[in-house]
Amino acid sequence: MGGDSPDESLRKGSIAILSNSGGFTTTIASYLRMAGWGTTTLISSGKDVYIHFAAPEFAFALANDARSKAAVLYAEPGGYYELDAHFAKPVVACVVGRWKRKLTRAVGHAGALAGGDDDAQAKERWFMEKFGVDGVFTPERPVVSARGALVTNIAHIPAALTAVMRENGALPDFAPEGSLALKPWFRSCNGLSLPPELDIPTADAMPPYDEQIAALNRQVGAVPPRQNMKDASGASRMDPKTQVTSLHGVSMLEAAQRSLEANVCLALLHDPGDENDAKLVNVAIGAEINLNGNPALAAAQAAREAGNAPNSVLAAALSIVGPRRAEGARQAVRALIDLGTTAGLHDVLDETFDVTTMPTDAATREILIGGEPDANAQLVLAGLRERGVQSVFVRYIESLGGHPRADGVLAAITTTLAWDPLMRKRVSRLTAESLPWWMRLFGTLIGASVDEAQHRPESVCGIPTVEIVSRRSLTEMACIALIGVEPTSADLFAFETLVGLLLTNGPGAISAQGAKGATSADGPESPDRVQLNKAMVGFLTHSGFAHGGNGFEGVAFLLERFRGVGLADPGNPAHGLDLKAMATDFARVYGSERARRKEVGAHAAGALPCINHPVFKGKPVNVDPREEFVFKLYDGRGEYNIFHDYYRTLVQALYDENVTRNVFAVNIDAVIASLLLKMLWSRHQAGDVSDQELETAAFTVFLYGRMIGCAAEIDDHLNRGRNLDTRTSQAVVRYVA
Hints:
Blueprint: H1 6-9, E1 12-19, H2 22-34, E2 39-44, H3 55-63, E3 70-75, H4 81-84, E4 91-95, H5 120-131, E5 148-151, H6 157-167, H7 209-218, E6 236-238, E7 245-247, E8 250-251, H8 252-255, H9 260-269, H10 275-289, H11 295-305, H12 310-320, H13 327-342, H14 362-368, E9 369-370, H15 375-387, H16 392-399, E10 403-404, H17 406-423, H18 429-448, E11 455-456, E12 459-460, E13 463-464, H19 465-470, H20 474-483, H21 489-501, H22 510-522, H23 532-541, H24 551-561, H25 579-600, H26 625-637, H27 642-656, H28 668-685, H29 691-720
Parallel strand pairs: 1-2, 1-3, 3-4, 4-5
Antiparallel strand pairs: 6-7, 7-8, 9-10, 11-12, 12-13
């Protein structure tokens, strides 16, 4: 009894305590102290069947103790000791355990049975008769007498005792030291508007907890525990039944209906964000797409001209965007987070927030403000004004006077993006400080996917840089970079669908393994040493023609099937082609070739691209839920795609011609091939887009999507992982002679 610090919880006074519970003995004494009552003798009798110093003995001792003016009893069901006690001094009795009435076995303290004449209700009647009261004391109905009061809530004991002692002309032993009102030290409503009775303000904590809480309040953002992250992820997971992956709780089917800028927010901030967030992302990444004169573009072009695949081309570019390219902006983020935290900033979009409450020292000003005009900073600030972006940090930098640095403006954008997730501890401070680097990496990857000739001093792909920053969306610019022309609304929708579906396939995907392995090799336990660009190169080097570039196999297959048929518009359902006949003819030829090869013992005919996975065994008709979702999505929009329709017709024809034992699934790769080929069909037929360019586009759209998903994996591993945790144990590796 007395807890860890009896001197704090127990004070000398005039009240004796007898309790069936040792823990509550101390609690009751603490409650009494807050109301100004001290204690004399505290006894915990326990709750056994036989109690050697029970209520009758306590009542006798109380009557003969000159120090004790009154007593508090805490009683549980079971036993008749309280009935036999005769009190000569005032008593407040707390009887608990009504819920035990229907029990037939002991619960809690030994002997605390109920259901007979000694249950909680019976004991309540005993005490009411002893005290001459007709009910239980509550703050709303303070029923007391000079002999005592009955309560059923220990929180009501102090008020009941004070009322009883007032009837006896006695005052508390000393001034109250507090109250039992809720005094939370922490408070979070998650942005909800609560009624006053629930919207309880915080109270100052007692020492030493006040200093510890103050230190915690200065620590912004989440701090996830570190663990082995091999084949594990806190960002993505795949549903084993449906094969549909989710990223931070958002399925790829839902992500496929969002813009690139929303999915960037989802990957790094764990939330798709709102319209203001999208504007910030559009400006931040859009300003990085034009690589004219940038060594990263020269590296990419050299790799492209050497015959490298798109992933290797982009890896060459990102290798240039090392930590020094982002250090200034990261320093600025650190400074802005400290300034906002010190100023008590909660709503980063609050247009009424007084930015002068964030004073700047010389060192911070040097990070944010330069001595000469910065054209890139002016470009970005103009874009933010044009879009009507809200940001306390952007206003703050503009209020400093002088010439804002581009790094400082980028930091203001990314700190605005991260502020709410930081305050809600959805993301770590480390993630927030890394955001400027991510913006530059994303912009560089998209820009480097375009030939060097498309980058001019004032434009990219014919789009003025000013227009990119002030009006264009990231979705539009990435789509233009992919297809080379101004996209239609249908093109943009298809592009969003493709990228959203391709964000992630879980931490087991080869591309994700490359990203996680590169992060692990740098040592996430020393996060400042992890090179995000190198981790992205890890994702790129772990992509390839079989993982990422295989989408072209479906495109090539469709090109062969529709060669020479005179298809003008793949989006016109009145195309005049007999798809069933086309599919049946191919199924017969394919089936005959398979049979011939089997008969002569040759290798089996090549597997048909984009068909067969996943096959749910035992089902006559197999469906990839991702493909089915996209089909219904487009059908609901009234948009037709002959290539997708052909694939669905083909799997039925293969079954009808006895080539397959059941109807195989059209997988998500078929959707990718169908959407992409539809976007580029007319230009391909006109000779403006070659087969090689189609293959590059199929590979590149995979890289766009996986760029975002792998950034989420890298950030997750950076925050959670351990050094070298992706190694394979020697016990499971094999040597093959």
